[in-house]
UniProtKB/TrEMBL annotation:
Residues 242-340, 375-727 form the DUF5916 domain. It comes from Flagellimonas abyssi. It holds the Pfam family CBM9_1. Residues 44-204 form the Carbohydrate-binding domain. This is Carbohydrate binding family 9 domain-containing protein. Residues 1-24 form the signal peptide.
Length: 729
């Protein structure tokens, strides 16, 4: 079967092409900031009046990145850094035109980058231009921290223990930070790290960077970092461990059929142990994730499972080692498969750098059995290795194993319901050119199971190019019929996919428009005999305005041959027969308002034909209003109207989500989310009060209510009080 799809020549061609772009020197290596060690005790107050700061070297003369990247920034910025035996310190001053107002959504931690005047620090301790850490603050003191991967992606779900303070004035704002060395990972005896500083000033719509960065790339791009030069290697961390226990109590009740809810008292926690300065061991016992924010519901009119991101803290540090293998819809490992409706007993993870070029990820999780369903206890094990090659590329290896324990003691009926084991083995090459203009990937995956029906193959490759005016991407995927990934996310099997995108930007000399241009995108699916099963062709035009608002228009042409029966309303009505063919056209319209307004809105619509000669009207609005910096109100409205022939006739439904985010201080937050999904007749409330009474230590009060509406009526509610504390040495 694999020879019929002929993926091997494409695989080899991509690999050869990738290597041609892999060698080059780091672009901004000559931009340097020198750090010296201080013996002075620094007070983190956002004032920076200590003698140490008067002597520290300043990084200044920032470059403009947006709206144009061919000049220096108009808003001056200055950053200084020093260190002592325990912490890395930063003092940054951002001048502004008097009279220009600050733009801040709220004091919420890990704020939205595009909606706040902010400063971000990007650190690459291994100087490998692919991984690192980001810390930052907005103009009113809300904190930002995250891990960096894939050359510039930031995972804000990661939290670390550090402190900062901000002072705001008429003509400037100042941020001061202290980041413990124990909170980050780095290689010992190394005196040069990659570093860059980014500023967003929404009053002038200006994004700037210490080092020059082409406008098509984010300021987080590690390919364009400068160099942080230490007068001596950073201190050795010595014994580095953290103990993070929790205790919680929950009361609740359920009136939903087949769902019971018992009050509980629960104790557990995590342990973090630094095996080296760059390699960490994480242990979790009886973990609980009741404080994690609720998933945002979406209307589903697709034929496939939807993806929801991981938000549980234990799975997030170095998450790219486990989660970035493959593509969005060919993931051999998806951590949300672990603990799905079943308690996690314990888990362990070793992750980080073995040396400058080799990263390791090793995870093992144990779940409990469920007597009411017969689900056996299961073990989930993952091994990931990532070896840097050339300037910024890497070769990755992944092995995923899911094992049902005491499987042979199960009744025959349960053995047919649950799999004894499922394994995935994969190898991939990730390309990242030195200038970041070329990026790509080639990977292969093999699945194994108790018999041949679980043994399959998946493979993919892509190459992407980005310049100031041109961008294009070509991609190819193949998944065999028997490829099985029970711990992954693979919503469809038995297909070949070809994908392509090409776009061009015009950069006019205008005080109203920053850029505009066309883009074509096509997705084409085939069966293993290369017969077309579905495709989407999209031709669009986008305009980006100087005030950071944008307008987009797309026309699309879509074809679907159903491979299985499908209800086009996804509401439990009649199904269209497998093998039927459907073809339609339509248009997408979108407009995003300028982010510096107190009232913001994003509007999108989809108008066009639909299955079985029908017509679909989709209207979406995201509305926001802020009473900065304490209150941010948001509403998401989505309306679908499906006008179809009998037996469906007209089906329409709403999805409504409203959110109130109240930040009393940058340590006390109250967030309440209401969601109503008419498609699945569900109404939900998630309300979370969080008090960060000490760095990385929290008190949570969480209320959840889930209401099933007619015809499946019932209610499930719970109230949880959870206390966590971070002990460390």
């Amino acid at each position: 079967m694999i020879n019929r799809t002929n993926p091997t020549p494409a695989f080899i061609a991509f690999a050869i092409f990738f290597c041609a772009f892999s060698f080059a020197q780091k672009k901004n290596a000559d931009y340097k900031i020198h750090l010296y060690k201080t013996d002075e005790t620094l007070t983190i107050d956002g004032i920076g009046d200590e003698a140490t700061w008067q002597k520290a070297e300043a990084a200044k003369d920032f470059f403009m990145v947006l709206p144009m990247d061919d000049r220096k920034a108009t808003q001056p910025s200055e950053v200084k850094m020093v260190y002592d035996d325990k912490q890395l310190y930063l003092l940054a001053t951002f001048y502004k035109t008097p009279g220009n107002t600050y733009v801040v959504e709220s004091l919420r931690r890990d704020f939205s980058f595009g909606g706040n005047d902010n400063f971000l620090l990007f650190m690459d301790p291994f100087n490998n231009q692919t991984t690192g850490f980001s810390f930052g603050a907005n103009a009113y003191g809300a904190q930002w921290d995250g891990t960096m991967s894939n050359g510039g992606s930031i995972d804000l779900n990661w939290d670390s223990k550090w402190v900062s303070e901000v002072q705001s004035y008429e003509d400037k704002w100042v941020v001061e930070m202290a980041i413990p060395f124990k909170s980050i990972r780095y290689e010992k005896n190394v005196t040069e790290w990659g570093v860059n500083f980014s500023r967003l000033d929404l009053s002038t719509n200006e994004k700037s960077s210490w080092t020059p960065i082409p406008r098509q790339f984010p300021t987080a791009s590690l390919a364009y970092t400068g160099t942080m030069v230490w007068d001596n290697p950073p201190p050795k961390q010595g014994l580095n461990y953290s103990i993070i226990p929790y205790v919680l109590g929950t009361v609740g009740n359920s009136s939903i059929e087949d769902i019971t809810y018992d009050n509980e008292f629960k104790v557990g926690g995590d342990v973090k142990l630094g095996l080296t300065s760059s390699l960490n061991l994480d242990l979790t016992i009886n973990p609980d994730f009741s404080q994690v924010e609720a998933d945002r519901q979406v209307a589903n009119l697709t034929r496939f499972e939807l993806f929801f991101p991981e938000r549980r803290q234990f799975f997030l540090e170095n998450a790219d080692l486990f989660a970035s293998f493959g593509y969005d819809e060919i993931r051999p490992f998806f951590s949300r498969r672990i603990g799905l409706g079943v308690p996690i007993v314990a888990g362990a993870r070793v992750s980080g750098n073995l040396n400058k070029n080799l990263r390791l990820g090793l995870m093992d999780m144990q779940t409990d059995k469920l007597d009411e369903t017969g689900l056996p206890s299961q073990n989930f094990a993952v091994l990931s290795l990532q070896q840097k090659v050339f300037s910024r590329s890497n070769i990755g290896l992944m092995f995923v194993n899911k094992e049902s324990l005491d499987y042979n003691s199960l009744a025959d009926s349960l053995q047919t319901q649950y799999t004894k084991f499922n394994r995935n083995l994969g190898l991939e090459y990730n390309l990242a050119s030195a200038d970041n203009q070329y990026n790509g990937k080639v990977f292969m995956l093999k699945s194994f199971g108790p018999d041949s029906t679980y043994n399959g193959f998946a493979q993919g490759a892509h190459l992407e190019y980005s310049s100031r005016k041109w961008n294009w991407r070509v991609q190819q995927e193949y998944i065999s019929e028997n490829f099985t990934s029970e711990v992954g996310f693979v919503p469809r099997n038995n297909y070949i996919k070809l994908e392509g995108t090409v776009g061009h930007l015009f950069l006019p000399s205008s005080d109203k428009v920053v850029s505009h241009g066309p883009q074509y995108t096509g997705y084409y699916y085939f069966d293993p005999s290369m017969n077309s099963t579905d495709y989407v062709s999209i031709l669009g035009y986008a305009v980006n305005f100087m005030d950071r608002s944008s307008l987009g228009v797309d026309v699309f042409n879509e074809y679907v041959q159903l491979l299985a029966p499908f209800d086009p309303t996804n509401t439990g009505k009649e199904e269209l027969a497998a093998g039927t063919r459907h073809h339609w056209n339509g248009v997408y319209l979108s407009y995003n308002s300028r982010p510096k307004s107190l009232f913001t809105y994003n509007l999108t619509t989809r108008l066009g034909h639909y299955f079985s000669g029908g017509y679909r009207t989709n209207l979406n609005a995201e509305l926001g209003y802020r009473f900065q910096p304490y209150v941010s109100l948001k509403a998401v409205l989505s309306y679908n109207n499906l006008d179809l022939p009998e037996p469906w006739y007209t089906t329409d439904f709403w999805l409504v989500g409203t959110e109130a985010d109240i930040t009393f201080t940058n340590k006390l937050f109250w967030n309440t989310l209401f969601q109503y999904n008419e498609q699945v007749n569900n109404f939900g409330i998630n309300s979370r009060l969080q008090w960060r009474y000490a760095p990385a230590s929290d008190l949570f009060l969480v209320f959840n209510n889930n209401e099933q509406l007619s015809p499946l009526e019932g209610n499930l509610w719970s109230l949880t009080l959870k206390f966590t504390y971070w002990f460390n040495r």
